[in-house]
């Protein structure tokens, strides 16, 4: 059979409510033209993020009922620790409440002012945490990553020549660690190949610099390796994931994405000294080391998911459903980033709205217009998220790409709901000149996408 079906059936439903256009115009105005600030009950199809929004399985719910809520040393923690060790192969397992908490713990424990962290592409919260302790994050994406005409299958790769140069030229000890975000989440949700992880690992070993994975979407990355990297076509996703983890010194991650958790984060490390330093921070900021601020039922649900997330028919369905959304847009001429990743489809805001200058925030304005048009909520990974303002010169530096992201929650939306979202974007594309630009009313210095407000330009 050609049709890839959802490998589950639905036993519990949650109604979604259609609003009128007039209501949506009022709601988005009241939210300061920031889709993130909309009350979720007024959103019809919520593609703002794939984070913390997964539908849980019956196995996850039933393991939660059997959870041990002891303050420390709970049975649920040991079950989680065993599942993590078996998959990641790293001795030290430190849970925390979400991905950015893991980034904060690592940054405080390990970074000093002036340190450099090289990466393929850092996610915005990772960069903010690195910068918050006076260190600097430097992205080294592979050159194909910013070429919208390239169909290179691993646009998430790090530029290994650039990494080599960076490691060679930085003074000794200045590069504290290197990060590979798998899959990256700022330039199209693109995967990193195993060959690239191997090359980065080899360079890092030569320069004695630890290599870490931001592994929020490692299962999807592993499956894309299976599909696109010929040497691994016969490997199980779990074997590929284990190979990825064997090449690095540790992992930090949100467990709210591939981890199928409504909350949760994780750090795994090989090095005892680093684990000790992180543990001290963990006790100050998150909770006891055998919980990291998570309830026993969270740990149970996450331990179960470490198995489910690597199930091949689930990953097959996941890629097929995101790809179907991307193909529908592509066939209608909507400027999408290709090849498609697994967790989201990204639309080129500048190409969609050529009448809007960067100052009028094309991708953000598109996201606002899509909500007003259809009730579909999306988000931006572009001029608002990554634009930098230099107050001394009064000038903006805009990112290489200004993208609007349709992120697909896991196991939540049916094919017809995603078809509706595609149709909404396509209808908007037909009248794209009508999309009005926006300008800032309020912009905080860091992570503006979460709280900034806007008005029509
Ligand atoms: C690649 C990546 N790293 C880190 C994070 C932060 O994780 P969390 O939202 O759990 O704090 C995200 C969240 O979207 C992400 O996509």
Supply database-style keywords:
seven-stranded mixed beta sheet, 2 domains, binds pyridoxal-5'-phosphate, 14% strand, 17 helices, 457 residues, single chain, three-stranded antiparallel beta sheet, Aspartate Aminotransferase, domain 2, alpha/beta, Aspartate Aminotransferase, domain 1
Care to give the gist of this entry?
By secondary structure, the chain is α/β, with parallel strands linked by helices.
What features would you describe in this structure?
The structure is a single chain. By secondary structure, the protein is α/β, with parallel strands linked by helices. It has two domains: 175 residues, Aspartate Aminotransferase, domain 1; 251 residues, 3-Layer(aba) Sandwich (Aspartate Aminotransferase, domain 2). The strands form five sheets. A seven-stranded mixed beta sheet has the order 2-8-7-6-5-3-4, sandwiched between helices. The protein has a three-stranded antiparallel beta sheet with strand order 9-14-11. The chain has a two-stranded parallel sheet with strand order 1-10. A hairpin with a 4-residue loop joins β12 and β13. α4 crosses α10 and α12 packs parallel to α16. The longest helix is centred in the C-terminal third of the chain and has 20 residues. It is globular. The relative contact order is 0.16. The model has no long low-confidence stretch (mean pLDDT 97). Pyridoxal-5'-phosphate binds next to α4 and α5. Pyridoxal-5'-phosphate (PLP) binds next to α4 and α5.
């Amino acid at each position: 059979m050609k049709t890839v079906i959802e490998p589950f059936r639905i036993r519990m439903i949650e109604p979604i409510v259609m609003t009128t256009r007039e209501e949506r115009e009022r709601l988005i105005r009241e939210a300061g033209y920031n889709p993130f600030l909309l009350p979720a009950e007024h959103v019809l199809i919520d593609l703002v993020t794939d984070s913390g929004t997964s539908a849980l399985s019956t196995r996850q719910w039933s393991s939660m009922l059997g959870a041990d809520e002891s303050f420390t040393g709970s049975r649920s923690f040991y079950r989680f620790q065993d599942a993590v060790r078996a998959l990641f192969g790293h001795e030290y397992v430190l849970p925390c409440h979400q991905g950015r908490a893991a980034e904060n713990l690592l940054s405080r424990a390990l970074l000093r002012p002036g340190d450099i962290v090289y990466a393929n592409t850092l996610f915005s919260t990772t960069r903010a945490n690195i910068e918050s302790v006076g260190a600097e994050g430097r992205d080294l994406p592979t050159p194909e990553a910013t070429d919208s005409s390239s169909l290179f299958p691993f646009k998430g790769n790090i530029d290994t020549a650039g990494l080599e140069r960076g490691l060679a030229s930085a003074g000794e000890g200045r590069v504290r660690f290197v990060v590979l975000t798998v899959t990256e989440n700022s330039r199209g949700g693109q995967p990193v190949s195993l060959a690239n992880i191997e090359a980065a690992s080899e360079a890092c070993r030569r320069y004695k610099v630890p290599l870490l994975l931001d592994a929020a979407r490692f299962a999807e990355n592993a499956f894309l390796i299976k599909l696109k990297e010929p040497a691994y076509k016969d490997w199980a996703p779990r074997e590929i994931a284990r190979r990825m983890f064997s090449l690095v010194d540790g992992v930090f991650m949100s467990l709210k994405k591939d981890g199928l958790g409504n909350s949760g984060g994780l750090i795994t490390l090989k090095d005892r000294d680093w684990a000790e330093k992180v543990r001290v921070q963990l006790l100050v900021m998150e909770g006891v080391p055998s919980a990291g601020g998570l309830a026993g039922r969270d740990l149970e649900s996450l331990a179960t998911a470490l198995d489910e997330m690597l199930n091949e028919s689930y990953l097959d369905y996941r890629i097929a459903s995101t790809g179907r959304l991307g193909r529908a847009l592509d066939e209608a001429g909507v400027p999408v980033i290709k090849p498609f990743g697994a967790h989201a489809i990204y639309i080129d805001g500048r190409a969609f709205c050529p009448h809007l200058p960067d100052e009028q925030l094309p991708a953000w304005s598109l996201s606002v217009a899509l909500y007003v048009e259809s009730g579909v909520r999306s988000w931006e990974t572009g001029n608002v998220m990554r634009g930098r303002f230099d107050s001394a010169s009064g000038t903006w530096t805009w990112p290489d790409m200004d993208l609007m992201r349709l992120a697909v929650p896991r196991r939540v939306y049916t094919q017809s709901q995603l078809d509706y979202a595609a149709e909404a974007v396509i209808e908007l594309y037909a009248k794209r000149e009508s999309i009005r630009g926006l300008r800032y009313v309020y912009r905080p210095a860091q992570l503006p996408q979460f709280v900034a407000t806007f008005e029509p330009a």
